[in-house]
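Fold it.
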Amino acid sequence: MIKQVSSQNIDDLIQGIESIIENRCSLLDEDRKLLFQTIILLKKYKQRNDVTDVASLLLIVKAVSLLTKFFV
């Protein structure tokens, strides 16, 4: 159940980030790269079997860190 809910939330987040990339023509190349890196991390997280292990959680921490850099 946790994996299913987590996967759906991650899909929604990826879709939102992709929407930002497509609809914000004024994005700097650095910001675009940062958002693509975030998507890659989130997709790696989705592929993991155990979403509660330390390595999986570190992927989420890295993704949140990148998003924080973008929004701050």
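The CA atoms of residues 35 and 44 lie 14 Å apart.
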